[in-house]
Amino acid sequence: MAKIPTMYEAQEILEKYNKEMFHLHHAKTVAGVMRYFAREYDPEREDFWAVVGLLHDIDFEEFPNQHCVKGEELLKENAVDESIIRAAMSHGWGIADTPHEPTHFMEKILFATDELTGLIGAVAIMRPSKSVQDLELKSVKKKFKDKKFAAGCSREVIQKGAEMLGWELDELIERTILAMRTVE
């Protein structure tokens, strides 16, 4: 029977398919960012948002060429509720082969912040503090314009995510920095 896993259960599922610290750290960062936004927009479902963030890239380490397709399969095999699967896999819409378009606000947040957390994290580790705690918008904007910096972080996806939310790019970046400060 499909269910919505607790954070502990979601962590166990994630670790069945992910061993590299980079992927585990990214999953925890995105989960924390999702929890941050849930506190403002959907406080009764903070854990739901966080579980979606934790499991969104479940397949990426082992199956990068089948991203989101294999993720859906793995989550179904682990009896994860369809609402989590749909939300988690929607972050790959237009990028990976997933039919799940981000339509709910929570899904749009995931879509917009997934790539952005990678870019912000890359900017932060270049700083003397190696932290987002003292990171400013202007530093991220400068690196956002440099397509060679953190080239794996799609600027197009980040921009599209901001548009989906109806936010200016600066607002998305600034709010995501604040969210990442809560999980660093």
Main features:
184 residues; mainly alpha; 0% strand
What's the number of helices? 9
Largest sheet: none
Low-confidence stretches: none
Name the overall outline: globular
How many domains is the backbone divided into? 1
Content of β-strand: under 5%
Mean pLDDT: 95
Structural class: mainly alpha
Overall strand count: 0
Element pattern in H and E? HHHHHHHHH
Helix content: 55-70%
Rg, rounded, reads: 15 Å
First-residue to last-residue Cα separation? 35 Å
Describe this structure in words.
- The protein has one domain (7-181).
- Helices cover 62% and strands 0% of the residues.
- It has helices at 7-17, 21-41, 46-55, 69-77, 82-89, 105-126, 137-145, 155-165, 169-181.
- Helix 2 (21-41) packs antiparallel against helix 3, helix 3 packs across helix 5 (82-89) and helix 6 (105-126) crosses helix 9.
